Amino acid sequence: MQTTTAETETTFIEVGKDAARRRIAMRILRAQMPSERPALVWLGGYRSDMTGTKAVAVEHLARDRATDCIRFDYSGHGASGGAFKDGTISRWLEESLAVIDHATPGQRLILVGSSMGGWIALRLIQELRLHGMGERVAGLVLIAPAPDFTADLIEPNLTETEQRSLDERGYFEEPSEYSPEPNIYTRALIEDGRDNRVLVGTITTGCPVHILQGMRDPDVPYGHALKLMEHLPADDVVMTLIRDGDHRLSREEDIAKMKQAIGNMLPSA
Asked: Which CATH fold topology does 10-148+201-265 show?
């Protein structure tokens, strides 16, 4: 993915205990003048990091709109510690909650989730609502969201060779269009994914939702985004289908749509 020079300093927190302890890298932008505007929280995708084009654009928007922005890397990603093969949705959700608790205590939030980050965002809202803090989420912007991708998009399409590799080695690999290194999917990720499914009933976010989805997305078909909408009957949901958009949605015109969607959820003053 194309990157832009990151302007904020990298800081770290420790998450987990004993052998599961890992060092999570964050970049936190603080508005020069305190305001009531929600903080923007970037939740990246599978194997993406916080220096990607969209993540940096979110921080630039926060700077322009005089609000806070939090970017971070899941364990096994970017500048964070931990092994990628140990990653699961539960593990990365735990880290997301820890970062929010550390960086934005009590502050209202606009969650911006890309691909797998959309799944993490939905689970994060569920956890906040479970603990009586659902009102903290002021808005949700999902870019090519991939909730339940392990159960809905990977498991049904496993080849015999991939299934055998899972059974015998505990993981399988597939070529990546975005990296010379292959994607790795572990048995632990897939099994944990079943426990974190969100497309199994009504999802209530309690906030406005804007979904941006490319219709030429080879990784997450736009029908998956339509399925997500069916599970959000109580929310104010807007979907923008981008006819020639791919999965990354990182072109200049795609970034403009993302920033507009986020900006519409920020108070003007």
From this structure: Rossmann fold (3.40.50)
